[in-house]
Amino acid sequence: MIILGLETSCDETAAAIVQKTESGVRILSNVVASSATLQAKYGGVIPEQAAREQIKSIIPVIEESLQASGYRHEDIDAIAVTNGPGLIGSLLVGVETAKVLATVWQKPLIPVNHLMGHFYANWIGEQTPAFPCLGLLVSGGHTDLVFFEDHGKYEYLGGTRDDAAGECFDKCARLLNLPYPGGPEISKLAVHGDASKVNLPRPMIDSRDFDFSFSGLKTAVANLLKETRPNSADLAASIEQAIVDVLVTKTIKAAQKYKVKQIMVAGGVAANQKLTSELKLKITHPSSRGKNLKLEINLHIPPPTLCTDNAAMIATAAIFNYQPINPLTIQANPNLSLTNPS
Ligand code: KG4
Ligand code: ZN
User: Fold this and answer.
1) Helix, strand, coil % (nearest 5) of the chain?
2) Which residues have C-beta within 8 Å of that of residue 342, sequence separation ≥ 6?
3) 268 alpha carbon to ligand 2 midpoint, in Å?
4) Which atom of ligand 1 is nearest to the CA of 307?
5) Whole-model pTM?
6) Parallel/antiparallel/unpaired status of strands 78-84 and 2-7
7) Residue of minimum CA distance from atom 13 in ligand 1
8) CA of 114 to the centre of ligand 2 (A)
9) Could you tell me if 271 and 322 lie in one domain?
10) Is the C-beta atom of 184 inside 6 A of ligand 1?
């Protein structure tokens, strides 16, 4: 089966052709045009501008993805498109384009929840996660913990009550006068810093639920900068460490409670090396009590290019949750979530 995926939920215009074979999902082409450099000028995404860029890019990106795959549109079995959550103007560009193509080319059309799409970046390639598994989604708009029993069968465990982890990275980066997107910038700076030199809170790290809260951390950074002038590399290291500590602690707690042998991480922040190395350390190293306690949990993380927004993950989600609907009934819905999935 060959699927054309389209993703336009925010400031990336993406199209990909993926193929399901007996050995797994293979990417035939994966094209991403980003207006991030344009958005960087303003320190964040301006919705109207992002939508205008989507309109300019969508057709060239689809043409390029077909050309790079070596296939023609006649060879495509179905089209998958992100229908939410995201920015309404951006989403509409992908959804309306997909409706037209599906109608004119007479292909089945599958709507995909962007958040599910992120998890499905883990199903690209030959090595994929095993069920039951715990999913941690950490992106610019979401921080969610989900227990998966099977494809399409999951339980939402908790999520952020305010800012997402990526949003916290971005907002703190702005306070440090670093460009957008801030996550990779904080990470680069943090390599030269000492986290122990700047004390920051770890919001909700000990709460009994699986919810998160990151807005207090950003406020703590803002207040700190009003009072003192810490070394910016130390501050970046401390911000990164605080976010990673909360994410790792809650993820491990959920993995233990739900007795999973498999964790998968998804979303832009999954590209963070500190997060992935600390998760690895926790599941394969002795506990802090000195006992040789191996949790023996497998960790699956997509390669960094598949962690951030792309259309290969959208097409892959459609392969494993193949539910085409009448193209004319598909609606862009900016408010979709994992508890309100379609
Ligand atoms: O998943 P994504 O590409 O878009 C959304 O759906 O939100 O995630 C973007 C987020 C941004 O907040 C960005 O700062 C963050 O992912 N990010 C990172 C890293 N790379 C991207 N955060 C921390 N470390 C990174 N290496
Ligand atoms: Zn995303």
Assistant:
1) 45, 20, 35
2) 83, 111, 113, 336
3) 7
4) 1
5) 0.92
6) parallel
7) 183
8) 6
9) no
10) yes
My answer on whether 191 and 288 are in the same domain is yes
User: Could you give phi then psi for residue 150, rounded to 5 degrees?
Assistant: -165, 180
Q: What is the residue range of 30's domain? A: 2-121+305-329
For ligand 1, say whether the CB of 187 is within 6 Å of any of its atoms.
yes
| pLDDT tens digits in sequence order for the chain, 342 residues long | 999 999 999 989 999 999 999 999 999 999 999 876 666 666 667 888 888 988 999 999 999 999 999 999 999 999 999 999 999 999 999 999 999 999 999 999 999 999 999 999 999 999 999 999 999 999 999 999 999 999 999 999 999 999 999 999 999 999 999 998 899 999 999 999 999 999 999 999 999 999 999 999 999 999 999 999 999 999 999 999 999 999 999 999 999 999 999 999 999 999 999 999 999 998 865 454 455 456 689 999 999 999 999 999 999 999 999 999 999 999 999 999 999 888
Residue 92 lies in a domain: yes
Among the listed residues 241, 205, 212, 26, the one whose alpha carbon sits nearest the alpha carbon of residue 125: 26
